[in-house]
Amino acid sequence: RQLEQFNEEDLIPNIPVIITITKTGYIKKVPKQTYRSQKRGGKGVVGMVTKEEDEIESVMSVDNHDDLLFFTNKGKVFKSKVYDLEESSRQSKGQAIINLIDIKQDEQVQAVLPINGKDSNAKYILLATSKGIVKKTNLNQFNNIRQSGLIAINLDPQDQLCWAKHTSGADEIIMVTKNGKCIRFKESDIRPMGRNTKGVRGINLKPEDSLVGLSTVS
Description:
The mean pLDDT is 86. The protein has strands at 16-22, 26-31, 56-63, 67-72, 76-81, 95-96, 109-115, 124-129, 133-138, 150-151, 161-167, 172-177, 182-186, 200-201, 211-217. A hairpin with a 4-residue loop joins strand 12 and strand 13 (182-186). 0% of the residues lie in helices and 38% in strands.
């Protein structure tokens, strides 16, 4: 009788967890059951201890076997398994992202996207820069990412990657600028591109203006 093949991941429980990320680059994983349900109007519980100058930037619910894609201001992407994160208590501040992925001292993580097999609507990753450039890349181009990271988008001088979003291929994009300008257009207006490309103009900006918000609408 032929024995079934298994790998190390098969020995790791695929439990639901909560990921918390702070502005100064700390990331924490706790089992989802740590946060027990409360009635509306409850006082809540401490979800994370942060430094005085820090604050929680994003929270996501994922499974232990999911992948996390980390996009930096330099236009690079890194990948880590959720189970590679240290499991923490509610009160801890977690671990520094710079100790998890191989980013440089002057590099900052701008967006973290979970990748799993359950989100069948996610077909592309949409990237946007502070200068209003957007790029759409097929999700499968992010399958094999080496430890040192890969280029997710080529940037012009003085520009930086600021946002990364999942899209279905049929969403609409909303971009908002510092000076109060707004544009909405169909995602289908952006043709898919490879990772090592610059993207296209999403919104025309005056020299003193910059992009401050990006949203997708299904």
